[in-house]
Amino acid sequence: MTDTIKSPRFAVVDIARGVAIIAMIAYHLCWDLSYFRFIEANVGYDPQWVFIARSILSVFLFLVGVGLVLGHGKGIRWAAFWRRWVWVAAGALVITIATWFAFPDSFVYFGVLHAIALFSILALPFLRAPLWLVIIVALAVIGVHFVFTDPLFNEKAWSWLGFWQIPPPANDLVPVFPWFGAVLVGVIATRLVLASSLAGKLLAIQPTGRFARLLTTMGRWSLLIYVLHQPLLLAVLFPLAQVTHPEIAMRSTDFMNSCQQSCVDSGTDAKLCVTYCQCGLENVETNDLWEPIFTGTITPEVQTQLDASNRQCSALIYPELNSSP
Length: 325
Fold this sequence. Notes:
The chain contains 14 helices and no strands. By secondary structure, it is mainly alpha-helical.
């Protein structure tokens, strides 16, 4: 695999990347607005938002597979591969460091860029492997995730593989199983297209309008945009939240700190406490219990909600409680 021939550049792929990066920015903007309570939606947990996030992630990883085939399917161009890989890995490191300081309890240790860096290497043997083998591996990587779990993978050290029963706290976690399968699907689709008459039709698509050219440019610079967009959003929204509603902006942090301290003091493992308290925070926000909690005006109805939340969150970290009568 030493051939250095590069496939023609498909503008339609850059346009697709541009659309995907806009979708990612829009999602993260909504996540930030939710986190700072500018909007009521619980973007991190509501099923419809989780579906949107996973859909955008699927497209991103699919396009990684597409780009690998177009760039290296006729022979790996090692210099170009490692040059881009270093930029992806550096971006992943920046995100880890930044989130370590911003969200120490849920920093990003294996997010999108970490996954892309690893998946790009793992996918190389499949760029020219028999297509039937790539299909089988893709189905296995995606499918095994749905039939196998083990408590071992609840730990951060192994969670990047997937298979957890309780995901460890992280603002972004993209494990090998099933997400490497999305890259392989991109590899499969691109190899099929290149072997068909559709390749010529797609190659002929060129950006003609201003917006299409903008999408193309964003697609070509998607890595830089991905690394920079969230810090820029936070740089605007965090100080704005401090000015407009400082008590709301900080109450989630105060709740988590207080809950985790009480949980650890009770003898529960610190990692389990993070999961327990995040569950409790979600229930407080979903049921709008901030005022009674902070004022101490706990009515019987509110107490019933808090007791139900405690049972739910306790069962989350101690699954055996689910089987209790």
